[in-house]
Model the fold of this input.
Amino acid sequence: MNAVASPSVPRGNAAIYRRRSIINIVAITLACAAALFGLAFLGWILWTLLAKGFSHLNLALFTQDQPPPMEAGGLRNAIVGSLLMCGMGVAIGTPLGIAAGTWLAEVGNHRKLGTVVRFVNDILLSAPSIVLGLFVYAAFVMQTGGNFSAIGGALALAFIVLPVVVRTTDEMLRLVPVQMREAALSLGVPQWKVTMQVLYRSALPGIVTGVLLALARISGETAPLLFTAFGNEFFSLDITGAMSAVPLVMYKFAGSGFENWEHLAWAGALLITLFVLAISLVARTLLLRNKVAND
Done:
């Protein structure tokens, strides 16, 4: 049997290698411990939501309006209000965000104005939602005579959707290879047609993913709706008047002290969590499909 001689390692290099190995083991251990710590709290939150909210997910939750204290009821008016305001918020913020993101990627990419717009968009992206709600209150609600309305709530939610869609559209369009633009332009295709039929088609899954993530974010927002939609105890489809939403009902019911209201608050929290989970799964699926197509 032939013995294979291992290469000799200088003593100084061996010490460095041993020190790096120890640091690597410590770093991996700390990272794993931090991940387990975070996952444990996430599991605790999900388990609490399921334990307290799942038993109250029933048909009445979707067919009955919010009840007085100690009476049976549901969240129909709040669910419909949330869907309306989130839908209008996405409908307002998405076209503006796609237009602004397209300008950033195709026109303002190498201009100072583009840098300024990206900086402002980043500030808007990280701004607290209550500040955006307060801005809409001053700029819209107060200008309409202090009239709380679903339109005001949708505007506040649109200001949250806008920077997410701008950033996503900008990033997705800049990922499209330059050769695709050059090939289309070399055939004499106008710039607007290149953008509509070539760039948007390539970046569409990413842009849709950004819109879905924005929808998931605004579905649980409470603070901006406190200043704009205000809430409504009754079922209403009038977008010019006050309207209820699931996060608003949760905010009101969670600390009420009435058992039936607290049960509805837990059911609403679980409902929003399941909605956000479904939106996230759809967004992940679109991203994965886009990645496979690009590969």
